[in-house]
Amino acid sequence: MNPNPNTTAPVATEASSGGSAVLAWLYVGIPLAWGVSQTFMKALALFK
Amino acid sequence: MADTSAAPLLDRSRTIAPPGYNRWLVPPAALAIHLAIGQAYAFSVFNKPLGSLISGDPANPAPTDWTPTQIGFTFSIAIVLLGLSAALFGKWLERVGPRKAMLAASLCFGGGFLIAALGVSLHNIWLVYFGYGFVGGIGLGIGYISPVSTLIKWFPDRKGVATGMAIMGFGGGAMIGSPLAVALMNHFKGSAPQGVAPTFIAMGIIYLLFMQFGVWTIRVPADDWKPAGYVPNEEHSALITTGNVSADNAIKTPQFWLLWVVLLCNVTAGIGVLETASPLIQETFSDAAMGAGRGVTAAAAAGFVGLLSLFNLLGRFFWSSASDKLGRKPTYLIYFGLGVILYALIPTLGHGLQLTLFVVVACVIISMYGGGFATAPAFLSDLFGKYQVGAIHGRLLTAWSTAGVLGPLIVHLLHDNAKEKGLVGAAAYQNVFYTMAGLLVVGFLADLAVTAVNEKYQEKGPVTIEAGGH
Known about the structure:
By secondary structure, chain A is mainly alpha-helical. Chain A has one helix spanning about 20-45. Chain A has one helix and no strands. Helix content of chain B is about 70%, strand content about 0%. The longest helix of chain B has about 30 residues, at about 255-285. Chain B starts with about 25 loop residues before the first helix and ends in a 22-residue tail after the last helix.
């Protein structure tokens, strides 16, 4: 909630699309998925 | 619309999002920072290689090789600097905005690796302390808090989900950092002792570049922005302020210090499990206890540690998201109430050789440890408003630094004491877990005492973010 609704904030000019959000999530999601899979494989040793 | 094209590239005004900006771009930007700095939790992967730079054989270190204690001190410095820099640079971050802070974090974290690489090459531990511990630790602190207040501003309707996603990245960072370091050290083994120095250089550059995605993607919302159809949550409104408290005033309130105790107890207790996980499961479920060939091996214990890392990560997102529905205070009451029971159960399950239940209980405990980290920013925002929540969060993280010293100290003192008395297996860890359960009772009471912040601490009149860091 804006405490001062009359403030005119300077804004950047470019907008963004859903496609760029998907790419952004892939950028962080792929390494995270790789790390999780590596850890999961290691964790499997506990159940052998 | 004001013209911002003349403002410097890193200026906060250049990061204000245009109308129609997709707020779901902000969590990946935050994750790019947290996934990188979360590598710190995987520093132990360097312990053996760093301890055998001279001898070349981890099993037979040379007299001049660094000891495990000397090497372990690097991580301790980094964690202490994390808390201190988060506390010191919080107000600066609120003033300059997340982009400049993220850039500073990336330069410190990546640069810290490069300085440490020089220290490894010269076999000078002080340079490693200065590089990874001091400079890198500052990067950790600034990086950890840099996206938090921005996420809260973008997701006032889902504060727990948003901050949970970012802080989940800190848990996930170790999962990437550990296998990456192993792969790089194997690759560089022929060109340098244990391949450590070139691995530090490569990781410094990789993380510096990886974090740039966050630096250049992050945007702050315009002051008058709010999500379409957003109505503040009325269900838990007693503890959700509509006012704003500055960082300087926040630390004068009992609520800040109660939350400080809450975080301290949660983290100290969690470290009790993390510090002991591998020896605990091997000694409790040894061949002697379970029967020949049926005990938990070192490889299986490593699997247990991996499983705990996964639940640490999942807990950060799950519990923080759940707190959006349950309320922050009840969520912490669950962490502590359920935690007391589960911590006290661990020795009993060990004595009873209940391996499966033992693993399940440990996983739930660690999920709540992670959840405690991830729920804190949203709790702070509820109590103090979003005006300087990043700076307040930074000051709260000194509890983490304190726990980082206190937790291992308690664990080692109690465990060594039990060993001196000749206790083995689960019995050797019994007092550790009962003490941690006692700490959780303290945390429960501290959380129970949290009430709404007195209005006298709130800023008078309207506040703007630009005024946030004077």
